[in-house]
Amino acid sequence: MNFLGWGDPNPTLITIGIEEGGIWCMNEMNDKQKGNFEKMCGQPKHEERDIDYARRCIRERFKFDIKPVNLPNESNIFPIAHPIAKIACGISRISGEKCFNWREYRDKILWTKGSKIANINLYPLGKKGLNKGFPKCYKELFGDFSPEEYKERVRRERFSKIRELLNNSDVKAIICYGKGYGEEYWREFKCLVEIDTLESINSNLAFDDKKKVILTRHFSRGFPNKFVDCIIEILKMWGISLDYMNGLKATNKN
């Protein structure tokens, strides 16, 4: 419950998804998922059980509210990184120069300390699908609880920590992504960020001008550039910019 997400611990822009996408059970991962897990957690120790490997990774990697990405190209393992990098690059200046290359931004800046952007999720335990059951190893890793008990605890404990982050930081704008997953999750987004009045642009995009909140479709389910451009224009209209001053220079190559 304490780990909220990854990125700059002092963000100007926060993106909020519904649920973590990865699972913690090695025996239920495909080869790509195992490779990504090892990029994030390092290689397992000699003769280390899968469950102990996962438990060690959780203990070592997820002890902070917001954890910066600090490995080269680590952001590449997240499918949502591509549209988020495009949006962030569109409102960023790198060492005083406009960001042109979103791929370079994704690989070298996105979610690092100083990037001024972070990503969190409403629900912390990933599954194979939003409406799927928990993987078998979760009982040993996290305890025995029903889906209803899990949701109630998240809403009671985690949502209050997320609100504290949003209210007690330099956050200037929020993007909630997951439109299309059902009214239940839409209501939770609206409740979490206390949205007043939504102005709808289309079925995939709406925003609250007063609260500086954008609600849009999920980033990993195909996110056309026209939606990226629209979000960039809204953020610019609100005066949101992400200035990165950690020594890199912007390039023109896309």
3D architecture notes:
This protein is an alpha/beta fold and 254 residues long. The protein has a single domain, classed as Uracil-DNA Glycosylase, subunit E (3-Layer(aba) Sandwich). 35% of the residues lie in helices and 19% in strands. The protein has an 8-stranded mixed beta sheet, with helices on both faces. The longest helix is centred in the middle third of the chain and has 21 residues, at 147-167. The protein starts with a strand and ends in a 10-residue tail after the last strand. The model has no long low-confidence stretch (mean pLDDT 84).
Topology diagram in text:
Elements: E1 5-7, E2 13-19, H1 31-41, H2 50-61, E3 66-67, H3 81-90, E4 92-94, E5 97-98, H4 102-108, E6 117-123, H5 138-142, H6 147-167, E7 173-179, H7 183-193, E8 199-202, E9 205-208, E10 213-217, H8 225-237, E11 242-244
Parallel strand pairs: 1-3, 2-6, 2-7, 4-11, 7-10
Antiparallel strand pairs: 1-6, 4-5, 8-9, 9-10
Helix pairs in contact: 3-4, 3-8
